[in-house]
Amino acid sequence: MEIMVSEKAKTISPSPTLAIDSKFKQMKKQGVPVVGFGAGEPDFNTPEYIKEAGIQAIRDNMTKYTPASGTIELKQAICEKLRRDTGLTYETSNIVVSNGGKHSLTNTFMCICNPGDEVIIPAPYWVSYPEMVKMADAVPVYIETTEETDFKFTIEQLEAAITNRTKALILNTPSNPTGMVYTREELEKIAEIAVKHRIFVVFDEIYEKLVYEGEHINIATLGEDIKALTIIVNGMAKAYAMTGWRVGYIAADTKIAKAVGNLQSHATSNPNSIAQAASVAALNGDQSFIDGWKEEYKTRRDYMVERINNIEGISCKMPHGAFYIFVNVKEVLGKEHYGRMIHTAQELCEDILDRALVAMVPSEGFGIEGYVRLSYAASMEVITTGLDRIDSYLKGECTEMKYSDNSLQA
Hints:
Layout: H1 7-11, H2 16-29, E1 35-36, H3 48-59, H4 72-86, E2 95-98, H5 101-112, E3 118-123, H6 128-135, E4 139-144, H7 155-161, E5 166-172, H8 184-197, E6 200-204, H9 224-229, E7 230-235, E8 248-251, H10 254-267, H11 273-284, H12 289-308, E9 315-316, E10 324-328, E11 335-337, E12 340-342, H13 345-356, E13 358-359, E14 361-362, E15 371-375, H14 380-394
Parallel strand pairs: 1-13, 3-4, 3-5, 5-6, 6-7
Antiparallel strand pairs: 2-8, 7-8, 9-10, 10-15, 11-12, 14-15
Helix pairs in contact: 3-11, 4-11, 5-6, 5-10, 12-14
């Protein structure tokens, strides 16, 4: 008997970042001394006061259903966080808490898109954006950017991409995978275009706390008109090292928030009650640890950028936010390495993982050719070891294959 899946399910591609992570963890479990640059999560632990709040929530029997769109206490904490960080005023009716930022984004596209609507996605992009858009029966429309423009699109490109079917623009700053940050001046121009054409801006600011030069600007602060069109998407994962707690949220117009809440009430019901209680403590508690983490990330970033630009055949620009470096590997592609022709970043990542035991993420999943993403959410020891191995691989010094189970899928 043939098992059939839906036509929609057939169009959804697996996450290439999770494919890398899966093989990396498989190798680690087997005792292979592999080094991972693929992580999209902080290597720091969740702060103790947040963990204690979660433990206390269990002791207080906060283990029942909460309102589907999140507890009033967490919504209030989010409103206060937005006021404190940006000056923006939101009511609890504008907030929906979901099971992570990814869930918040999926909910958003499901609630703003009709079949055939277009959503503009600048490339390189986070791997899940196009799939989320397709799951909402909408059409991803890509704006291609280049290293020469710091992987940021121009206003002319944005205008050219807008049609009468355009529903939204996805704006991720600081960016995954490039680490680039949009300036106030750039955001003002984007806001002007969005308001002119009445398109939503899905503003993914999950890395907002990790900006090393300049400042993070929330586009909704640039006027009431753009605020009305902005759907802020954020969560607890990156700033508080709470990736596994799965708490994300949106701040949006009440009509959108209500629709998202209704959808969520049927799809998943409420986010984890214990994680919500811990998130209240995180947002209302001492924030000073974030500066210490940021300083450590910056030290790692600076070291990695200098090392990478001193390895023959690869190069990178200085990212200004998040914890990723987007490395140009075009010069080493189309050449033979260890008796194998390496044509793509995917093939390069496969060979380096098997031969040098270093996990990187190829750029094909981000909508661009010729790059790999390295995360510096790792210790300096891991970073140094990994870069040493990459250097040795590119010098032709990794003559012995160290891992033979080449099962990584694109």
